[in-house]
Specification:
Number of domains: 2
Shape: elongated
Strand order of the largest sheet: 3-2-1-4-5-6-7-8
Structural class: alpha/beta
Order of helices and strands: EHEHEEHEHEEHEHHHHHH
Strand content: 5-15%
Number of helices: 11
Bound molecules: NADPH dihydro-nicotinamide-adenine-dinucleotide phosphate, (2S)-3,4-dihydro-2H-pyrrole-2-carboxylic acid
CATH class of the largest domain: Alpha Beta
Distance between the termini: 37 Å
CATH topology of the largest domain: Rossmann fold
CATH superfamily of the largest domain: NAD(P)-binding Rossmann-like Domain
Number of strands: 8
Largest sheet: 8 strands, mixed
Oligomer: single chain
CATH architecture of the largest domain: 3-Layer(aba) Sandwich
Length: about 270
């Protein structure tokens, strides 16, 4: 049976989700993708690229899923209250991707009748690797959203308190930062940028694949690679001295705190 999706906010994250839904049309057919979006330029691009139908804050078409995709700095409460007026809780499941914005807070405006699922997706939606964290309200069950969520990656159903943590873990940004620094390191040491990029990308994929194949933590493989008094252990010592691990850990902790603060301060 084909589905009908309604997105409020048609920005970067929603665009990445819609791209994935279209890509998985065989496993998750959709009749309609409606998008309610302030920016005319964004809606024009979504229509041209993905055949979405533009709607207004008065629209109330039949929808299996309404996804709230505005920012925590936008009028999230106003959007949720408007959803409650327009859609039928017996028919429609509401999904929110708003960082930091809790189920309790959403229910203050939406009411408690809707099946509501708070998720944290990421933009790795079309490569089948990205993980979404998902937390259900009292009315919702996995079956309400599982097929939809699986169109844009893997799904981890977790306690709601872990949603902010997954948000601050912030896939895939840390990896992008690492690749950026690694490629620059190669260039600094004398490699042409295209060669540094090729080695960095394949090594990241290869290293990850090998860790999965061996089912071990990196320390086991580092012990094989680092010979006594050699190159690898010298590199490890330098990374330790420069606070490499602490830098990553501090960044994740700060991002978790920022997520919670954004949600707490949101309307
Ligand atoms: N980007 C990411 O990697 C991730 C984002 N998220 C969450 O997704 C949400 C969107 O983020 P992102 O896509 O990056 O942000 P964007 O700024 O790209 O998209 C938000 C869009 O919503 C529009 N908008 C604002 N208010 C309304 C409204 N009342 N009705 C309709 N449209 C509206 C904005 O228009 P205008 O700009 O004109 O105001 C903008 O086009 C956020 O809550 C974020 O926390 C979650 C996980 C990952
Ligand atoms: O940067 C942001 O605020 C959003 C929230 C999580 C991912 N992107």
């Amino acid at each position: 049976m084909a589905h009908s999706l309604y997105f409020i906010g048609g920005g970067n994250m929603v665009t990445a989700i819609i791209a994935a839904v279209r890509r998985k049309a065989d496993q998750y057919p959709v009749d309609h993708i409606y998008v309610e979006e302030i920016s005319q330029a964004r809606i024009d691009a979504l229509k041209a690229d993905y055949g979405v139908e533009a709607t207004t804050p008065e629209s109330a078409p039949d929808a299996d899923i309404v996804l709230i995709g505005v920012r925590p700095q936008d009028d999230v409460a106003g959007v949720a209250a408007s959803v409650a007026k327009r859609f039928d809780p017996a028919r429609t499941t509401v999904v929110s991707i708003v960082a930091g914005y809790t189920i309790d807070k959403l229910e203050d405006s939406l009411g408690k009748d809707f099946r509501l699922v708070r998720i944290i997706p990421n933009t790795l939606t079309t490569v089948d690797y990205g993980y979404s964290g998902a937390a259900l309200n009292a009315k919702a069950s996995k079956e309400d959203v599982d097929d939809f969520l699986n169109t844009f990656g893997k799904v981890l159903y977790v306690e709601e308190r872990l949603i902010d943590v997954i948000t601050g873990f912030y896939p895939p940004n840390i990896v992008y930062h690492f690749i950026d620094a690694y490629v620059d390191a190669g260039v600094l040491a004398g490699l042409p940028r295209d060669i540094a990029r090729a080695i960095a990308l394949d090594t990241l994929i290869g290293g990850t694949e090998f860790l999965k194949q061996r089912d071990v933590l990196p320390q086991v493989l580092l012990n094989i690679n680092n010979s006594p008094g050699g190159v690898g252990i010298t590199q490890a010592y330098t990374l330790n001295k420069t606070g490499f691990a602490a830098a990553i850990q501090s960044a994740v902790l700060a991002a978790v705190e920022r997520t919670t603060a954004l949600g707490a301060n949101a309307k």
